[in-house]
Design a protein that fits this description.
By secondary structure, this protein is mostly beta strands. Helices cover 11% and strands 32% of the residues. The protein has 1 helix and 12 strands; from the N terminus they run αββββββββββββ. It has one helix at residues 3-27; strands at residues 42-47, 53-60, 68-73, 83-86, 104-109, 115-122, 129-134, 146-149, 162-165, 171-178, 187-192, 201-207. The strands form 2 sheets. A 6-stranded antiparallel beta sheet has the order 9-8-5-4-1-12. Strands 2, 3, 6, 7, 10 and 11 form a 6-stranded antiparallel beta sheet that branches. A hairpin with an 8-residue loop joins strand 10 and strand 11. The longest helix has 25 residues, at 3-27.
Length: 225
């Protein structure tokens, strides 16, 4: 990455954070009467067992698919852990609509415009199935589909969820294995065929969109929810 490209990227990330700060005044994130994760919300999700946030960055796997890597990171402030909640390809969810348990969603990585993805390539550290970030400007394929498994009617902001990959039937999981350089200390995210305690996630920080809120202008202006 050249110095010019890095400067542009950092500038865009700063603009994004300013958007999040400004529009967080509209989402009433402390409103106990609006407890749901909704279509269009920008969230960070944390693995409950390992206390790491789902994370990606412009660093590719050195094996497997060679796609952009997805990891778990313990930093609360890192800007590369924001994801926007979207519907399926050609079947966008309604902006501000609560996400129902059992529905299929996509998660787009805000900083790079790639979707949370999985496939049958082996994960690099645990030999489960690899989880990557895939696509361009929010466009991808059915490997970006995740079913939200939760115990109530809707995905609740303070509730536990699991994410099941539709194409492979694997559960989004943190393996506990740690990477070396260039992402030293970050944990491997993968999918496993069976759900266990490391397959549970919860939302932590976020901008939760309600139906009446004004549109949030993102770096990728054309995002299809």
């Amino acid at each position: 990455m050249t110095k010019t490209t890095l400067f542009i990227y950092e500038f865009l990330v700063i603009l994004l954070i300013l958007n999040l700060v400004i529009f967080s005044t509209f989402c009433h994130c402390g409103d106990v009467h609006y407890p749901y994760v909704t279509c269009g919300s920008i969230i960070k999700i944390q693995n409950i067992s390992y206390k790491v946030r789902l994370h990606s960055h412009d660093i590719k796997y050195g094996s497997g698919s060679g796609q952009q890597s997805v990891t778990g990171i313990d930093s609360q402030e890192d800007n590369n852990s924001h994801w926007v909640v979207k519907g399926k390809i050609g079947q966008p969810c309604s902006r501000g609509q609560p996400i129902t348990c059992g529905s299929v969603i996509r998660l787009e990585h805000i900083a790079t415009g790639k979707n949370l993805h999985s496939h049958h390539f082996p994960s690099p550290l645990s030999n489960n199935l690899e989880v990557s970030a895939f696509g361009d400007d929010g466009n991808g394929d059915t490997g970006d589909y995740w079913m939200v498994a939760c115990s109530s009617d809707y995905w609740e902001r303070d509730g536990k969820i699991r994410l099941k990959h539709v194409d492979t039937d694997g559960w989004l999981t943190v393996s506990g294995h740690s990477f070396g350089r260039p992402i030293h200390g970050q944990l491997e995210v993968c999918t496993k065929p069976n759900s266990d305690s490391s397959s549970y996630w919860r939302t932590v920080e976020g901008v939760y969109i309600k139906v009446q809120d004004p549109p949030v202008k993102l770096i990728h202006q054309h995002i299809e929810l």
